[in-house]
Recover the amino acids of this structure.
């Protein structure tokens, strides 16, 4: 265990918190919490180190790789100081606990106003959003223990009140201590977000055991052993009621985190209202001849739809084209059937329900036109128009709350099916079967209970986790295999080119030529692959240069003396290298004998290896070749200029992004970018199962994109993309 964490630093923590007397019952909690947080923080830093190493390993360029390695080095060097700062700050919270509760929330809301956020830099805003999400999730997950602990701490600390309670272990305080501690790290926003993510995963998400232990210690000390929360009215409230009150308050916080979705929904409603006003349609409530149909009545009407309308052919849900349902016309017909009530008033929808129906219609219009959705998933999701309409009428938070169960399920289905190609065999595909069954269950079982979508989403996420785990293993093996294969190809090509270049200059004796091309080339190949570790590549090249030099004529005494010194080491290096690559032993002795003979003959007779000279070409032929070469180069320049703008788009593709290739024969397939091997300028793509399907260079991909045979697929949440498209469409109509 790192000596910095746990009990080894409790003395320092006590000193840090000694500015103010700490209540006796809190001292034990402080020591336990500080030690526990230190251990959890170790796991977070270890995970950060692994994440940065993996990112560096998959980096697309040397600059990007160096950036991750520099961040890793920076964090390793300052890790102990960050841990010490964090633990000391937490210990200080127990001596001088910051206030929490409504007052702080109001202050935070004022600080997070639109005017203020507009002044915050993008990096700071990203970090703040990540922190807010982390804190909100922790409060929701541990709301019961946090409420009890806050109430007990407020009883223990003399300065605490019901209006201004305290809790040194509140998630916002712990997150604040951590962000303060990591200010010393000189890293960029991406690495900082990785750090926050692992802090959330390893520390904040595991606060439960520390909160429970703190509550247990206070209960043993007799601090509110039977928890009952006293509200502002002075009435006592049971712990169950208090828990429910906190849950309701947390729901409002959660809905606040979905403010962006809610703002989009309100923007859409305003534009729809503007369309009605421009069309001269009066508000429903001001027309005495109109009877507004309520939500419950509309939901009942939708439930009364015949099975033939709500359900399709259950055996072939994804066959054929996507189903198009005119929801507006369908609802009008249902309402028209209820027109005769005897009061002479015409039944109409209220404006909110009408907006919701219009929005669902526009949503599915986008889905049916969305090229990013694979065809089978598009057909399956199109079957859910009426069930989603029922959901929206019963629960209007579908569009305003990003975590709505039905919305999450639709996003999960679209995300999981992005890798499908039209050539896939659906009958044998487990993922297809799972999505098909989900749609079938919704059509058969949905009776208005939204919990069905939550249950199905949880089952689907568990299924995806299992499938993704298997695919990830296959993809990792594929990636490693391709890296090895491509590196081997690059090594062989480098060796062949270098030897061909050196050997082509001279007319070498045949034995020498055979030794270099059929024997020593293997040694050079192995040295190239191991150069990062053994650094022998340059030594193998020097052997080739020395051998060729020894075959040259040497008349000066100094050169002949050098020849005598070089040859024994040269012969020893050649034999050792060939033995290392397991060259045929009997053949090796024969080759070495021939080599010694050639070297001795060259030294004795002072013979020269002849330099190769190309025969002079016909001047007219040379001129024609030059003209032809110029034309080729000019054509290549035009091609390079044409694809330059597409190369920038290729650079934007990240590991894990999905693309679609279209072949010349009209067929198409979808695949995911698994690896970018910079030394070979190679992009490796795999299918959903993690198996390699194609590899291309950067320029080849740019040419494919220029010809319209490569499409980058959008992978954002389906509903979010649909809402953005709807807003854009309405804005153009109301402009």
């Amino acid at each position: 265990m790192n000596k910095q964490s746990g009990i080894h630093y409790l003395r320092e923590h006590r000193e840090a918190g000694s500015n103010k007397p700490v209540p006796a019952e809190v001292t034990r909690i402080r020591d336990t919490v500080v030690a526990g947080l230190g251990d959890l923080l170790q796991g977070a830093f270890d995970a950060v180190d692994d994440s940065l190493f993996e990112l560096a390993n998959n980096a697309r360029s040397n600059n990007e790789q160096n950036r991750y390695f520099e961040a890793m080095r920076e964090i390793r060097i300052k890790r102990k100081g960050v841990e010490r700062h964090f633990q000391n700050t937490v210990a200080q919270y127990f001596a001088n606990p910051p206030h929490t509760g409504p007052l702080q929330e109001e202050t935070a809301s004022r600080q997070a106003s639109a005017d203020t956020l507009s002044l915050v830099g993008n990096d700071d805003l990203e970090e703040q959003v990540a922190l807010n999400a982390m804190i909100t999730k922790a409060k929701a997950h541990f709301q019961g223990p946090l409420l009890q602990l806050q109430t007990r701490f407020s009883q223990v600390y003399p300065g605490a009140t019901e209006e201004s309670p305290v809790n040194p272990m509140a998630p916002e305080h712990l997150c604040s201590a951590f962000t303060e501690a990591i200010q010393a790290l000189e890293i960029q926003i991406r690495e900082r977000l990785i750090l926050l993510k692992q802090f959330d995963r390893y520390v904040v998400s595991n606060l439960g055991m520390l909160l429970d232990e703190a509550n247990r210690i206070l209960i043993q000390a007799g601090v509110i052993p039977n928890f009952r929360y006293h509200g502002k009215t002075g009435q006592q409230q049971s712990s169950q009621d208090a828990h429910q009150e906190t849950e309701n308050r947390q729901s409002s916080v959660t809905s606040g985190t979905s403010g962006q979705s809610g703002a989009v929904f309100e923007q859409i409603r305003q534009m729809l209202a503007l369309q009605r006003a421009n069309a001269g349609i009066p508000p429903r409530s001001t027309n005495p001849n109109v009877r507004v149909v309520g939500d419950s009545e509309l939901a009942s009407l939708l439930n009364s739809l015949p099975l033939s309308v709500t359900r399709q052919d259950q055996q072939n849900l994804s066959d054929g084209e996507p189903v198009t349902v005119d929801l507006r016309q369908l609802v009008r017909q249902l309402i028209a059937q209820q027109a005769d009530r005897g009061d002479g008033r015409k039944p109409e929808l209220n404006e909110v329900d009408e907006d919701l129906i219009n929005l669902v219609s526009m949503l599915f219009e986008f889905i049916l036109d969305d090229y990013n959705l694979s065809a089978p998933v598009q057909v399956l999701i199109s079957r859910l128009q009426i069930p989603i309409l029922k959901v929206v009428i019963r629960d209007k938070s579908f569009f305003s709350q990003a975590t709505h169960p039905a919305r999450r399920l639709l996003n999960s289905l679209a995300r999981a099916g992005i890798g499908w190609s039209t050539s896939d065999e659906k009958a044998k595909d487990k993922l297809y079967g799972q999505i098909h069954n989900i749609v079938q269950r919704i059509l058969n079982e949905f009776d208005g209970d939204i919990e069905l979508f939550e249950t199905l989403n949880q089952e689907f996420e568990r299924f995806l986790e299992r499938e993704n785990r298997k695919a990830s293993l296959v993809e990792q093996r594929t990636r490693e295999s391709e890296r090895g294969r491509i590196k081997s190809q690059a090594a062989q090509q480098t060796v062949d080119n270098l030897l061909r270049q050196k050997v082509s200059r001279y007319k070498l004796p045949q034995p020498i030529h055979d030794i270099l091309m059929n024997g020593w080339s293997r040694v050079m190949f192995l040295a190239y692959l191991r150069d990062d570790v053994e650094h022998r590549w340059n030594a193998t090249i020097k052997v080739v240069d020395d051998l060729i030099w020894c075959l040259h004529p040497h008349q000066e005494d100094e050169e002949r003396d050098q020849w005598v010194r070089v040859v024994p080491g040269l012969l020893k290096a050649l034999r050792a290298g060939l033995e290392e690559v397991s060259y045929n032993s009997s053949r090796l002795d024969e080759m070495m004998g021939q080599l010694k003979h050639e070297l001795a003959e060259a030294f004795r007779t002072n013979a020269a290896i002849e330099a190769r000279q190309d025969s002079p070409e016909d001047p007219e032929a040379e001129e024609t070749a030059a003209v032809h070469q110029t034309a080729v180069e000019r054509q290549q320049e035009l091609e390079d200029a044409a694809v330059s703008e597409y190369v920038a788009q290729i650079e934007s593709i990240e590991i894990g992004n999905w693309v679609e290739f279209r072949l010349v024969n009209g067929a198409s397939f979808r695949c995911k970018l698994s690896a970018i091997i910079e030394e070979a300028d190679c992009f490796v793509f795999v299918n959903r199962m993690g198996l390699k399907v194609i590899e291309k260079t950067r320029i080849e991909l740019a040419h494919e994109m220029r010809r319209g045979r490569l499409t980058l697929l959008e992978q954002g949440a389906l509903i979010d993309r649909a809402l953005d498209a709807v807003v854009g469409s309405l804005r153009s109509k109301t402009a």
Remarks:
- The mean pLDDT is 77.
- The first strand starts at residue 229 and ends at 230.
- Residues 131 and 176 are 9 Å apart (CA to CA).
- The chain is about 65% helix and 5% strand.
